[in-house]
Write a structure and sequence with these properties.
The chain is of the alpha/beta class. It has a single domain (3-222), classed as Rossmann fold (3-Layer(aba) Sandwich). The chain contains seven helices and ten strands.
Length: 229
């Protein structure tokens, strides 16, 4: 399988005096993989998420997503890349209050230039995909935590992006809702979506086919290969 995501010697340094958040990360994720990036607070996983999601730029090194070398892209080009190739799921859901589940999901297509009618039709399809066709008109406060996360996942996949990034997707959920979300992610992966989950939860990471462990901004273990110390 080809690499959908590839990081080569990625370094990210902040501030003065400089603090190194990522210290030469090399990581390749093939099309169709389901990967957990796991590490304690301060390990660099949040910085890695921002780099992979093109929300931040590396200080040095290279990042390729779906065959596109992102390093020399303009901010507008990166926004277009995110709109068409990346889906994001966050711990805090980030749903707009006072807006129906269907409209929240449709907002995931705002930057594609698609007409509203088409966006709403695709949003309904995405909600059916996550098992929430009976909640399309409900507002966020009328939904359980697990349902809100399912809406967030529907929004992330409504444009059928090849890569889904999930940041602590079960962090705000009880164990039952969390397990249901993990099961849904497995279903999406089985249907062809490549997924990278960023988490500190080793139990969650252990449920995924591949685990990559970060420490002090470096990849220290990868269940798919041996990492030199």
């Amino acid at each position: 399988m080809s690499a959908l995501l590839e990081l080569s010697d990625v370094v990210r340094v902040y501030g003065s005096p400089p603090v190194t958040a990522l210290a030469g990360v090399n990581l390749a994720v093939a099309t169709g993989e389901f990967v957990a990036v796991v590490g304690a607070s301060g390990s660099g996983k949040s910085t890695l998420l921002n780099i992979i999601g093109t929300l931040d730029r590396p200080t040095s090194g290279r990042l390729s997503i779906d065959g596109v070398d992102t390093i020399d892209l303009t901010d507008a080009e990166l926004s277009a890349l995110r709109a068409r190739r990346l889906g994001f799921v966050f711990q805090q859901f980030h749903l707009r209050e006072g807006t129906s589940a269907r409209d929240n999901v449709a907002e995931g297509l705002l930057y594609t230039g698609m007409p509203r009618r088409e966006r709403l039709a695709l949003a309904l399809t995405a909600l059916r995909r996550v098992g929430l066709e009976h909640r399309v008109t409900h507002l966020p406060h009328q939904l359980s935590g697990g349902e809100r996360q399912r809406v967030a996942i529907a929004r992330a996949v409504v444009g059928d992006p090849p890569l889904l990034l999930a940041d602590e997707p079960t962090g705000n959920l009880d164990s039952r809702s969390g397990n249901a979300v993990v099961e849904l992610l497995h279903e999406l992966n089985a249907a062809g979506t490549t997924i990278v989950v960023i988490t500190h939860d080793v139990q969650l990471a252990g449920q995924l086919p591949r685990q990559v462990r970060l420490s002090d901004g470096r990849v220290v273990s990868d269940s798919s290969r041996k990492v030199a110390s």
